[in-house]
């Protein structure tokens, strides 16, 4: 997917919440607000010792359904960290930073500058 079509990429680090300190860097991860979860190559998650917990079904843009395992990870981008469920990607799957991870990081997308920016104060109920 060309970067000149409103898409962009970021570097992220993954960490196993059960083994803090051991991280793996993924370079040029596609930011995809159309994807619910973030997709990571299975070998990266396995190297970190992240366990497969649940099996999800995903509908792709062409209508095909794929089943993939998910597991819990910390996702780091410069200056921020969140925990989220991530997909164990298989060969041929894209490596993506999905909308749920972006929300957990409290980032929004600035498509003009093609970067992640702070989304500001999160909504909360009034007392």
Mind explaining what this structure looks like?
The protein is mainly beta and 127 residues long. The chain has helices at residues 42-47, 99-105, and strands spanning 9-15, 23-31, 38-41, 54-59, 65-77, 80-89, 96-97, 107-110, 115-118. The protein has two helices and nine strands; from the N terminus they run βββαββββαββ. 21% of the residues are buried. The mean pLDDT is 92.
Radius of gyration from the alpha-carbon trace, in angstroms: 15 Å
Number of strands: 9
Q: What structural category do the secondary elements indicate? A: mainly beta
Poorly predicted regions: none
Work out the helix count. Answer: 2
Q: Give the N-to-C terminal Cα separation.
A: 46 Å
Shape: globular
Largest sheet: 7 strands, mixed
Assembly annotation: single chain
Q: What pattern of helices and strands is seen along the backbone?
A: EEEHEEEEHEE
Strand content: over 45%
Roughly how much helix do the residues carry, as a percent range? Answer: 10-25%
Mean of residue pLDDT?
Answer: 92
Topology overview:
Elements: E1 9-15, E2 23-31, E3 38-41, H1 42-47, E4 54-59, E5 65-77, E6 80-89, E7 96-97, H2 99-105, E8 107-110, E9 115-118
Parallel strand pairs: 2-7, 3-6
Antiparallel strand pairs: 1-2, 1-5, 4-5, 5-6, 8-9
Task: Give a concise summary.
By secondary structure, the chain is mostly beta strands. 10% of the residues lie in helices and 46% in strands.
